[in-house]
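Async update (no meeting this week)

Hi team, since we skipped the sync, here's where things stand on the single-chain job. The sequence we agreed to prioritize is pasted below, unchanged from the tracker. I ran it this morning and attached the output directly underneath so nobody has to dig for it. Comments welcome in thread, and please keep replies under the output.
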Amino acid sequence: MTRADAAPASEADLDAAGRALARWAGLSLAAGLRTTLREAVSAAARELGIGPAELARRAAADEPGPLDALAAHAVVGETFFWRHPEGLEALAARLARRPGALRLWCAGCATGEEPYGLGMALLAAGREGRGDRILATDLSAAALEAARAGRYGERSLRRLPAALAERFLVRPAGGQPGGAAAEVAPAVRALVTLARHNLLDPVPAAGAAVLGDGFDAVVCRNVVIYFEPEVARAVLRRLAGALAPGGFMLLGPVELALAEGAGLEWQEEGEAVLLFRPGG
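Output:
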């Protein structure tokens, strides 16, 4: 790469890349997140071995590869097991007594901590052997690859209760590849189907076998906070429409207000708020 090829992205380049990111993935890196956008462009450029200016221009031209890399670096990658545990526990408690197999969708699953944690909560609530299925989707191919590996370090596991860790994690004496502390147990992994999906698109085709007449629950936490409010509301209406009557939606605490108008009822359980689709 020549010095010219490695030129930084101009303000105009960043504007164009930001608009493309919003069109393609709904992600909004407005003026207050200018530094985040610039850093994401630089990180994506390094990943692809090109300069930031070229990355920004190719993303602005809607090239899938540069857009995918830019989106992966544009959102905060911090996630871990048992984040806001009151929500997972409330959802598992509501679903535990339902007959038949459950169908759940974890949208924006990142590197897998959320769907695997949901699976642990269901198994701990007595759902073992019931045929439950969790469809876990994300836009980032790299995040899904990490989720498929199912191996996590201590930082991701730091809040997982000891009883769940002992039951649902495997810690070989020789350690895990890449310095990982533990691997998710097969009983949990068997519940989860991973697939790539853009939340601006319809319900993924990969969910057809899981979907049936609708999902019993949709979990989408700390995802739509990165979207423009109107885009976030449209996404949540689509997710609400994927629920079966009587189904629940679990969002991050700061995202609840964006679900107004989605036709869901608020139901409080302890410190958690579940959104309920009437009719079940």
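Quick observations from my side:
The mean pLDDT is 86.
The first strand starts at residue 103 and ends at 107.
Reply here if anything looks off.
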